Amino acid sequence: MSAPLVRPYITYDDLCRLPADGNRYELIDGEAYLTPSPNSRHQKIVGRLHGAFRAAIPDRSEILFAPLDVVLANGTALQPDLLFIREANLGILQSVVHGAPDLVIEVLSPATVAMDRGVKMEAYARHGIGEYWIVDGELGAIEIYRLDSAAGAYRLATRCAEGERATTPLLPALSIVPSQICRA
What we know:
This protein has one domain (38-181): tt1808, chain A, CATH 3.90.1570.10. Helix content is 22%, strand content 34%. By secondary structure, it is of the alpha+beta class.
């Protein structure tokens, strides 16, 4: 009788010891996921979002972009497209981020949409990230989710599209028009 096939639980330290193979990996609950390289449109959207956030930051808060590991637990390390850390929480920012940023953003790509709306979203909520934005460049829309701590899950706060503005109470000066961010 053969033994069942069991995947080993991978820790963040294990992930860091893997030989460099040119790929990006994310770790969720001890399972490694290969993260494909984004296309140029995706990167343009990330760049515009970064600029909008940077212009709205009034203090030492940080807006950072991938690739940068966000270590949420020993078996969970993700690389959100963008992450925002308020000045009061900058202690989590070391050579990588150790803890929950205040806000993370994922820009959808055909290869990542299921993960961004599925296991990554669940992991972000489970580890206490208060706000999660999903940017759909094809539709020119931004979905803003806020953590319902009692439920341990995100609730859709708003969906912004043509003519609307994406905002967050974390940065009162921020006002993003999705069509301007998502243009080709």
